[in-house]
Amino acid sequence: MARLVVIGGVAAGMSAAAKARRTNPELEIIVYTEEKHISYGACGLPYYISGEIEQESRLIARTIEQFAAQQIKVYPRHRVDKLNPASQTIQVVSLETGEQTEVSYDSLVIATGASALIPPVPGRARPGVFKLRNVEDGMAIRRYIEEKKPRSGVIVGGGYIGLEMVETLHRHGLSVTVVEMAPQIVPNMDEDMAALVQQYLIDRGIQVFTQEKVLALVGEEVAANDNRAAGDQLRTTLDAGPGNAAVDLVQGKTAVDLVQGKAALVQGKAADASLTRPQEMGDIGFSPVRRVLTDRRELAAELVILATGVIPNTRLAQAAGIELGVRQAIRVNNRMATSVHGIYAAGDCAVATHLVTGEEVYIPLGTTANKQGRTAGENAAGGNAVFKGVVGTGIAKVLELEIARTGLTERECLLKNISYSTKTIRSKTRAGYYPGAANIHLKVIAEKPSGRLLGAQIVGYTGAGKRIDVFAAALTLGAKLEQLKDLDLAYAPPFSPVYDPILIAINQFF
Amino acid sequence: MARLVVIGGVAAGMSAAAKARRTNPELEIIVYTEEKHISYGACGLPYYISGEIEQESRLIARTIEQFAAQQIKVYPRHRVDKLNPASQTIQVVSLETGEQTEVSYDSLVIATGASALIPPVPGRARPGVFKLRNVEDGMAIRRYIEEKKPRSGVIVGGGYIGLEMVETLHRHGLSVTVVEMAPQIVPNMDEDMAALVQQYLIDRGIQVFTQEKVLALVGEEVAANDNRAAGDQLRTTLDAGPGNAAVDLVQGKTAVDLVQGKAALVQGKAADASLTRPQEMGDIGFSPVRRVLTDRRELAAELVILATGVIPNTRLAQAAGIELGVRQAIRVNNRMATSVHGIYAAGDCAVATHLVTGEEVYIPLGTTANKQGRTAGENAAGGNAVFKGVVGTGIAKVLELEIARTGLTERECLLKNISYSTKTIRSKTRAGYYPGAANIHLKVIAEKPSGRLLGAQIVGYTGAGKRIDVFAAALTLGAKLEQLKDLDLAYAPPFSPVYDPILIAINQFF
Questions:
Q1: Does A429 reach chain B within 8 Å, measured CB to CB?
Q2: Is A43 a catalytic residue?
C-alpha cells in the first residue's frame, strides 16, 4: 500500500490529507504536526481572545478522532527533523517522549506553515508580550487578559492581524495603541485608503503611530543588570536544552521562577513551534511588560502584541535541497509540485502565482492554504488537480470598519512599472434613505491604455467589504472596465444604492 | 436650439434628462410627468410605509428646483396625450388647469414607466385596498395604517413587492397573510428555493397560501345593492370627469361622502397616474375592506395590498406607431432607440436584452431604468452610448431573510430547452464559529456540456443576498464554472467561511 506523509496539521496539511483520502481510498495517510491542536481556524483567534467565541474547541474544524475515522492517522506533537528525498524517508521525533523514528513515504506534502516574525527587540520575552499565530498563543493571551486585567495594550504592526487585535483589545476595555514602522498602517493598501482606516481608529479613540520604531519593551522597575544576568543564564540553559522549548514556559514567570523554569524546560514540557531557536527570544526580561519604548515616545503597555508579519517555515525543505522561491517560500508549480519529484508543498510555506501579473508571490492566507492543500493532496494521491493562483484578495474587520483589497495597488503598479489610472469614490452601503446606510470608499485601478481591471480597495461599514469579491472574480476573468460598467448588480434599498458603489467607481473612468 | 422632451419623471426619465444635460450643455430639456413627485426611489416605499424612513421627502433624489438649476424644466402633473412623430410634436395637457399645448421636439425619450396590474376582483376599490406603485400610494397606505390601525393585512401576490410589504405590515404589528395564485411564492425563483422562503415566513408567523385565487374583497355589512348603486353613480361621474381622477379620492371615503367626492373630482384634485381609466376600478365598494374571499377560504383583512405585477405604459407609444416587443413593452435597441427615428425609450416601459440568452425580455427594475435612462439621454442629446442588457438580477429582503437571483432559473432552462445541471448547497454566511453565522442556501445552474454558468439563486440571512453579484458579474463575462472554482474570494471569519458558499456551490460540479 502506498503511503502519503503530510507534514503540518493546520489548513493546508489537513486539507491535503482529507482530499487525498477522497481521491484514493486505498492510500495510507499519515500526518505529523509539531502542534497539539490540528485543523484549527487560526483566523478566528482574535475572536476567541475577545471572548466572542467562548471555547477554543469551536475553532477546531475536525478532530484527530474524526480524521482517524477516515483512516487518516494524525501524530500531534511530532516534529520532522530531516527529509531525505533520495531514500524517500523522513526522520520524526516525538516531542512528548523524545523518541525518533524513520518513516518512508511514497509521496509527501509539506505544509509546515509560517512562523511569526518576531522583531529583535529587547524585552520581547517578557510576560505580557505575545505573538498571535496558533491556538496556544490565543489561549495564553486570553488567559493573561482575564487574569492580569491589563489596562493598556500596544500592538506592534498595523496589518490585518494587528487591526483585528485592536478590536479584540478594545472589546476587553484596554486603551489601545498601534505602532507601525512603515509610513502607514494596512501596508498592503494604498496610502489614501489606509489614511481612512487610520482616521477611523483615531476617531474611535485608538492611538496610531506610524513611521515609528519600537526600541524596547520595558518591565517593572527591576535592577536592569540583575535582569540581564538572569536572562543570560536562561539563554545558556535554553541553548543546551531541547531546541524548541522556550517562550511559553518563560512567559508569566518572574526572575525568581527561573529555577523552576529550568526544570520544566529540561523535561521539554513547554514549546512554541514557531520560535524554534532560543536565540530568537533576545534579552529575556522576567518582569511583566509595562511600557513600550519607541524612537519617538514611551507608551504605557500592560500587554503587547507583536503582529509584525510571518516567515515561511522552509528550513526542512531547504535542507533537503528543495528549491525555494520568493521570500524563501517553497517554489511550487500549479499542481503544487516542488522541484523534487513526489514532494508537494502547500499553504503558508509555499509560493503562489499572481493571476494579474503572472508573477510568483508569497501571500500566506488561510483561504489559499485550503485550496493549495486540496490540490497538493489530490495530486499526491495520484490525481491531477490544478490551482491556478491568487489575485491578492484580503479582507479584515476592525470594530465597525471593513477593509478589503484585491489585485494590485497603485504602489504595486508603480513598483512594477505598469501604466495605470485610478479613481476613488465615496458612496453608501445602502440606499441613502435606508436606515444604516453608511459610507463606503472604493478605489479602482485599471491598466492604461488597455482598460483591463488591475485592482480594487474598499474601506467602509457593514456590507462594504465583501463587495471586493466582484472585483476578485472580474480580475480572475481578465475583465476590462468596459465590460463591467453596466453590470447587473443586485439592487434593493437595504442592500445598495440604485447604482452600486462598484458601478459608480467603474463609471468614473468613462 | 435643439429641444429634448422627456415623458416621465421618475428613474428612467430623470436619468435621461440629467445625462442629456451632461452630454450637451446647449440642449433645451423639458420633462413632462403626470405625477406630482419626481425622481423618487419607488423601491424605498415599503420602508417609508413601515416608518423606517420618516419623511417621504427622503425618497426624492433630486427636486424640481435642483433640476431647474441645471436648466432642466420639469412640468409635474402634465399628461402627454398624443405623440405625432411625423410632425415631431406632442400634445400636453395640464392636469391642474386642463390647458392643452402642442410642443415640438427634436428628440424624445419615452419613460412612461409601468402601472400596477390590478386584478379584476370585486371590491378592489374599497377603502383599505391599495396597490403600491408611487409616492401617493405609499403615503395613502401609511396614513391608513396610522389612522385606522388595521390588525390584519392580506397581501395579494408573493413577488418581491409583496414580500417587502410582509415586512412592512409585520413591523406595524398586523397579522399578515400572503395569497399567491401561482403554485409558489417568489415566482421568479425555482420551487425549491421559494419553498425555503415560504417555510421561513410560516415560521415567523406569516400565513402563506399558494395556488389560491382571490375572488372578492368584502367590506363591512352594508346593503349590497345600495353599495352597488352608489358605485355605479360614481362610475358615471368618473367617466365624464377628467380621465385620470379616481381612486385616491374614493379611497378613505364612505358612500355618504360621495357628493363631496364628486365635487373634488370635478376640480381634478385627485389623481392616480397608473389607474388611467375609472373602469379599471371595478365594483366600487364604499365600506372599508374587512375580509378577503379566496377560492379556498375567507381571511380577515382590514388592509389589502395588491402586489400582482405591472404592465408597461405604452399606449401613447403604440398609438404613435412605435413598435412594441415582448409583454407589450416598447422595443428598443442597445442604444435605447425605438423603431421611430429620434425617439428613445427607457425604463419600465421598455424591453431589455438578456445577456445570457440574447433574447428580448421585460424585467422592469429601478436599477435597469436608471441605466437605460442614462443611455437614452446621452443618445437623445447627440451622444453614442450603449446599454448591452441585463442578466436578470434581483434581490429582496423580507424580515431577516435575503433573497436573490440572477441569470436563468431551472424552470427557465426547461422552458427554453437549454440542457443544464444544477447543484444546491447550504452553508454559512460567516465562519461557523463566528457570532451571527447563519444559513445561506445557494443554487447554481450551469449549461451542459459547456459548463457555462447560467444562473444562481440565494436564500439566506444577513450577508447572503449580495453574494449574487459575483454570479451577475461572471454571467456578464460569460464565465464557465471551471474558471470560477478557485476564485480568490475574500475570507475572514466575520465575512465568510474559509470556503465562501460561492466556492462550495461551484465545487459541487467537480
A1: no
A2: yes
* Partner residue facing A434 (CB), from B47, B396, B494: B47
Q: Is A428 an interface residue toward B (CB < 8 Å)?
A: no
3-state secondary structure of A269: coil
CA distance B208 to B178: 5
Closest among A274, A245, A265 to A132, alpha carbons compared: A274
Contact across the interface for B44 and A487, Cβ inside 8 Å: no
Helix (H, G, I), strand (E, B) or coil at A123: coil
Measured between alpha carbons, how far is B229 from B66 in angstroms, rounded to an integer? 48
The secondary structure of residue B324, as a DSSP letter, is B
CA atoms within 13 A on the CB side of A453: 30
pLDDT in tens, A417-460: 999 999 999 999 999 999 999 999 999 999 999 999 999 999 99
Distance from CA of A506 to the nearest CA of B (A): 13
Instruction: Using CA coordinates, name the residue in chain A closest to B466.
Output: A490
pLDDT tier for residue A231 given thresholds of 50, 70 and 90: low
Each residue's pLDDT tens digit, B241-292: 433 333 333 333 333 333 333 333 333 333 333 333 333 444 455 799 999 9
Residue B468 in 3-state DSSP?
Answer: helix
Is the separation of the CB atoms in A219 and A190 below 8 Å?
Answer: no
- Rounded Cα distance between A184 and B279, Å, is 68
Residue A228: the pLDDT is 54
Residue A341 burial by Cβ neighbours in a 10 Å radius (0-12, 13-18, 19+): exposed
Looking only at the bridges linking them, the beta strands covering B3-7 and A453-460 are: unpaired
User: Whose CA is closest to B369, among B317, B323, B316, B332?
Assistant: B332
Between CA A246 and CA A233 the distance in angstroms is 13
B36, B41, B43, B493: the active-site residue: B43
> What ipTM was reported for this prediction?
0.89
Dist CA A38 CA A13 (whole Å): 9
CA-to-CA distance for A105 and A102, rounded, in angstroms?
10
The dihedral sign for the CA sequence B105, B107, B113, B115: positive
Contact A468 B490 (CB under 8 A): yes
Q: What single DSSP character describes residue B314? A: -
> CB within 8 A of B228, min separation 6: which ones?
B283
Closest CA to B107 of B28, B25, B19: B28
Q: CA-based Rg of chain A, rounded to a whole angstrom?
A: 24
Secondary structure (3-state) at B402: strand
Q: How far apart are CA B176 and CA B206, in angstroms?
A: 5
Nearest CA in chain A to B161: A492
Q: Which of B340, B343, B90, B365 is nearest to B351 (CA)?
A: B365
| Residue pair B317/B82 in contact by the 8 Å Cβ criterion | no
Q: Which three cell numbers stand for residue A124?
A: 520581547
| B124-B127-B129-B131 Cα dihedral, nearest 10 degrees | 100
List Cβ<8 Å contacts ≥24 apart for A141-146.
A141/A49, A141/A303, A141/A305, A142/A48, A142/A49, A142/A51, A144/A252, A144/A303, A145/A49, A145/A172, A145/A174, A145/A303
Determine the Cα–Cα distance for residues A17 and A128; give it in Å rounded to an integer. 36
User: Which chain B residues contact residue A58 at CB under 8 A?
Assistant: 433
Residue B323 DSSP label? P
By CA distance, what is A54's nearest residue in B?
B433
Set A2, A43, A53, A479: catalytic member: A43
Strand, coil or helix: what is B92? strand
Its pTM stands at 0.89
pLDDT band at A220 (very low <50, low <70, confident <90, very high): confident
Length of chain A: 510
